[in-house]
């Protein structure tokens, strides 16, 4: 026996079936407006407003644990952790000021990230140019110490961040004693030729600002005599700078005797002769006609 096919009949809705709005009773309009107003008032005035809660920066896992869970790809895990750390100051629509962060824990997180990728630059960039950008001297000093500690592990590749933090101590914190310590570390730990010359000259310039003219002059003269400066323009600039420092020594009374003046003059003449012998273009001989 054949199965009867089910037939569905769809009713088409045509515009003639709609009622015009003018036919809606006024009391229904009033009721709808009252309901909407009550809903808005209830939501705004009676319902408790959500209060975002700031989540504290928790302690990072141990370096051994992170190495284990990296599954043989510590570089990728380091980047993920860095992005997660960078996003911590934005929670539930809140922008958390850096002054609310625990900088001791922050430094530990940066340590873990560097342990996963020793060549990563972004942790050092973040410490030097992001997390140090806070109006809090204590937190700035913690970032300075973090950069100093990691600079000592690889001076020739991390000098840029150390130089930036030296300027922070010098110009923002107005702590020339700290800046001088850091400049000395840059000169002692970096390798000549592997870092820009000004990095190793920073100590001499700070000493000049501190009116330690003799120490500044000795450092500049030593750098020039050691042959560290290979660019002729830079050599001439430092030579003129050394001459200016010696003039300051004379004006300040630090150099008084003729013997001292002659000694300084001989130093300048020796360096000038070295400059001319190394960088002056040799005179080309002109062949005379036979």
Automatic annotation (TrEMBL):
Top-level taxon: Bacteria
TM annotation in the entry: 27-47
UniProt entry keywords in alphabetical sequence: Membrane, Transmembrane, Transmembrane helix
Annotated protein name in UniProt: Uncharacterized protein
Organism of origin: Candidatus Doriopsillibacter californiensis
């Amino acid at each position: 026996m054949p199965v009867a096919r089910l037939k569905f009949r769809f009713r088409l809705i045509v515009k003639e079936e709609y009622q015009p709005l003018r036919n809606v009773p006024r009391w229904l309009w009033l009721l709808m407006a009252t309901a909407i107003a009550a809903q808005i008032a209830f939501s705004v005035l009676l319902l408790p407003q959500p209060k975002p809660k700031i989540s504290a920066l928790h302690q990072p896992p141990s370096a051994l644990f992170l190495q284990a869970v990296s599954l043989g790809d510590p570089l990728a895990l380091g980047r993920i952790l860095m992005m997660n750390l960078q996003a911590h100051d934005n929670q539930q629509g809140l922008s958390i000021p850096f002054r609310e962060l625990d900088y001791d824990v922050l430094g530990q997180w940066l340590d873990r990230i560097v342990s996963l990728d020793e060549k990563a630059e972004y942790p050092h960039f973040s410490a030097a140019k992001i997390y140090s950008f806070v109006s809090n001297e204590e937190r700035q000093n913690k970032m300075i110490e973090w950069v100093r500690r990691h600079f000592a592990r690889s001076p020739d590749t991390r000098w840029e961040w150390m130089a930036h933090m030296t300027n922070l101590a010098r110009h923002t914190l107005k702590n020339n004693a700290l800046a001088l310590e850091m400049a000395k570390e840059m000169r002692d730990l970096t390798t000549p030729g592997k870092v820009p010359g000004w990095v190793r000259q920073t100590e001499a310039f700070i000493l000049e600002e501190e009116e330690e003219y003799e120490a500044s002059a000795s450092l500049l003269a030593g750098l020039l005599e050691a042959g560290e400066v290979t660019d002729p323009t830079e050599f001439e600039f430092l030579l003129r700078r050394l001459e200016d420092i010696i003039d300051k020594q004379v004006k300040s009374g630090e150099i008084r005797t003729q013997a001292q003046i002659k000694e300084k003059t001989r130093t300048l003449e020796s360096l000038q002769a070295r400059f001319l012998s190394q960088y002056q273009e040799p005179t080309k001989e002109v062949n005379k006609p036979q």
